[in-house]
Amino acid sequence: MKNTIAVIALSSFLAVTACKKNEKAGPVEKTENKTTEEFVVDSVKVNDSTKITDSLKVSYTSKLLVFPTLKDKKLLDSIYFQNEKIKDFSKAGLQAYLDKEKNDYFSSIKNDNKDWVSDVTYAQNWYSSSHMNLMSNANNYMHIQYVGSGYEGGAHDNYGFSERVFDLKNSKKLELKDITSMPKNKIEAILMKNIDKINSGTMDGDGEVKNSEMLLVEKIPASDNFYFDDKNLYFHYSPYEIAAFAAGDITIPVSWEDLKGTLNAEFKERMKIK
């Protein structure tokens, strides 16, 4: 039952706490796009806790970005893809949604698990945390990172990431095919080759452990969990997705040189890739 609650807490927003790398870098909650001066970003937040029993405290933290200048409903539905219940994209509407989610979460812990939650006899702090972070907005490509975490008992908490890039010029979520025509099997071969280029920071008694030493898969999938900058395309994998939990989250770069000859013409021009 505890594992079930953890899964629900995570999937409610793909909730997961920002890992150490992202805590250092921090979210970029401003636009860098000089061509869309009217672009506005705001946010709504909720941060609350309640005592379930003398031994159990539960916390709920969440943040949603607000885009008052974006009016395309299909685009907004895609931006809030993990929150299908959202129908009102205004600041007030999103705040009301978060308040309801918080109350529903507290109620689920209190009511759905009352048969066994009283068995928690030592002090515990359970939580659900989810955040939308605007990482960049350049060349009309907006990168949002969705990060969430949760803990409802067990050996450790769980966390994960979802990266999405939105093409504001064409009002849609960017797909891998909009960037490159390279077949996925060839991209996957590059991912395997580049697995150790950005180390996860995992250490053991002998020092730093390579990502490749912790893989649980024979093939690294070219997933939709990607973003990019002026140098590389990056694929981001949450714990357990391709490696052991101890590896943390893993980011693998694929350079534009690796994709040379396969880049979409419009994407290449907008990103000024030579």
TrEMBL record:
Origin, by domain of life? Bacteria
Q: InterPro entries recorded for this chain?
A: DUF3298, PdaC/RsiV-like_sf
Give start and end of each DUF3298 domain. 183-257
What Pfam families does UniProt report for this protein, alphabetically? DUF3298 (PF11738)
* Entry's transmembrane regions: none
Q: What is the lineage of its organism?
A: Bacteria, Pseudomonadati, Bacteroidota, Flavobacteriia, Flavobacteriales
Q: What is this protein called?
A: DUF3298 domain-containing protein
